[in-house]
Amino acid sequence: MNNSNNKKGSGPGKPSGDRKKTSSNPKPAMDKRSQNRKPVVKKDSPNIPKPIKSDEIRLNKYISNSGACSRRDADIYIQSGNVKVNGIPVTEMGYKVKLGDVVNFDGATLMPEKKEYFVLNKPKNFTTSNEEVEHRNVSELIKGASNSAMAPVGRMDKNTTGLLLFTNDTDIIRKFSLPNQKSTKIYQVTLDKNLKFEDLEKIAKGLTLEGHKLFVDEISYIENEPKNEIGIKLRTPNVKVVRAIFEHYKYTVIKVDRVAFAGLTKKNLPRGNWRALTEQEVINLKNL
């Protein structure tokens, strides 16, 4: 599938040039006999923190970047002695890996990848499930986006369309898959009949589904559209909940289209096309 606008947006500017080194401040004149002389700290004193080199990365982050596990879980593996750097077990928390080091994690050599992020405007009849072999998988639509293996964030059935985030960043995948994730999603829902105003008000106040209280941020009729076209904003990561809300009030859902996900929109992104996230969009996702 052809990419639409797949160039990354320009990120924050980098400072140009290196900072000039300034000479140490001149020591104040002091009588040789003075008893108030301050102790001189040597440059190689362990009390002076050493600067982190640009080609160094914390071991737990290196492991997380490879997709093996989260940073927190990586710390557990490190403490238990299951991580080796250049063949030597490392149990030191905060240990930094240098460029060219070989990291062995639980018996396997890690190859960390550059983190990439894409958003797809998913068409109908594609699914995120690998078990539904009778339907085409969404991975077909973005296979030209990266040489790395991209995974969808969350699930989306074949009948649901709209925004779907892909990444090889396991931290982001876990973050947006948690039940208590607070990012908002906006859906346009098409029903088999007009939504009664009293039902719209009931949904707006929240409802209980399968014993769980569900809160809806906003719900309204789509402006200049029939009353069976509904816009709904909520925070649950489970797309199936959208259908369940209206089915609870005896409506048949004809179509569900996700038009916004965690601040991302499908503006200027045709159905079936993908684009790379800008640096600012990635920052926004990580800060949610």
Briefly characterize the structure:
The chain has 288 residues and is an alpha+beta fold. The chain has helices at residues 59-65, 71-79, 170-175, 197-204, 240-247, 279-287; strands at residues 56-58, 83-85, 88-89, 96-98, 103-105, 108-109, 117-122, 126-127, 136-137, 151-152, 160-167, 185-191, 207-209, 212-214, 218-221, 229-234, 253-261, 264-265, 274-276.
Question: What does this entry look like structurally?
Answer:
The protein has 288 residues and is α+β, with helices and mostly antiparallel strands. The protein has three domains: 54 residues, RNA-binding S4 domain (Structural Genomics Hypothetical 15.5 Kd Protein In mrcA-pckA Intergenic Region, Chain A), CATH 3.10.290; 91 residues, Alpha-Beta Plaits (2-Layer Sandwich); 78 residues, 2-Layer Sandwich (Alpha-Beta Plaits), CATH 3.30.70.1560. Helix content is 16%, strand content 25%. It is built from six helices and 19 strands. The strands form five sheets. Strands 7, 10, 11, 12, 15, 16, 17, 18 and 19 form a nine-stranded mixed β-sheet that branches. Strands 3-2-5-6 form a four-stranded antiparallel β-sheet, with no helix packed on it. Strands 1-4 form a two-stranded antiparallel ribbon. A hairpin with a 2-residue loop joins β2 and β3. α1 crosses α2. The longest helix has 9 residues. The protein is elongated, with a radius of gyration of 26 Å. About 18% of the residues have low confidence.
